[in-house]
Amino acid sequence: MFSLELLLEAILFGVLLGCFYAAVSIGLSVAFGLLDVPHIAHPAVMVLGAYCTFVLGRLGWDPILAGIALMPVFFLLGMAIYRFYYETFEKRGTDAGVRGLAFFFGLTLIIEVGLILAFGVDQRMVEADYIGKSLKIGDMRIPMRLLVAFGVAVTLTAALTFYLSRTFTGRAIKAVAQDEPALRLMGANPVRIKQRAFGIATGVTALAGAMLIIVGPVDPSLDRVYIGRTFAVVVLAGLGSMTGTVAAGLILGISESIVLTLFGASWAPAVSFGLLLIVLGLRPQGLFGR
Question: How many degrees, rounded to 5, is the angle at CA 22 between CA 17 and CA 23?
Fold first, then answer.
């Protein structure tokens, strides 16, 4: 039976879930929103980060520390991926977007098949002191894993927002998709800026993967669940808007939580695609886009 208490509980869980969605989408917001790279492999890279966290977890690492340690490795991986994409597709003409979709779709398949060969199709999870425990507030019990993911998500989003708005490289990343010739006049190489930006986008995805395996078990095909959600958050926010990504994640998280509470789990995955269609139809530039 519906009640105000049930609604408040759904909104609370939606806020925690929404910040998590924002954190797992922020790398895509940089790659797709600022660089115009059709990075549909983003969720697969995130699942790869989750499995790398699982491997380090078996060696005794805390999942969050493992995600932070993996960020430099994924940064270098992202720079290598973008360099290959640039030399093979982007450098060759205006149809780079269409060919790039095929490239990143292939990368998704390679990651997924590689994970299946290495780990099988069974779900994997990590252990930590805060996983399996909950915080009691009145009659509500909030899983500690969601609170930890919430804290890391807020910190990650704030740090990346500060970097993009307060540093020369960050401002160059925001400007590279708008006016490359002007950026060259400022003494910056657009290709190197894009390469570094894609590396940053991939690096933060490693930490997002750590949060993913904290929130719940992972399997190699989990990227299919998150591809709609991450793109919905980025498009809803407005391409390249970091603060908008947080707001859009909250909108999606609260909407999913309410739908889950009122109508059941089978309807929750449809929320992201429904919001995506509505925003594209009514406001293609997103809620916070220019």
Answer: 100
Residue 287 lies in a domain: no
Average pLDDT, the chain: 86
18 found inside a domain: yes
Tokens of 123: 């779900």
Q: What is the pTM of this model?
A: 0.90
Q: What is the average per-residue pLDDT within 182-199?
A: 85
Per-residue pLDDT of 90-108, as tens digits, reads 777 656 667 778 889 999 9
- What CATH number does residue 133 fall under? 1.10.3470
Among 205-214, 253-262, 279-288, whose mean pLDDT is lowest?
279-288
Asked, for residue 246, whether it belongs to a domain, the answer is: yes
Number of domains into which the chain is organized: 1
Instruction: Give CA 203 to chain center in angstroms.
Output: 11
How far separated are the first and last CA of the chain, in Å rounded? 42
Nearest to 28 by CA among 234, 186, 195, 183: 234
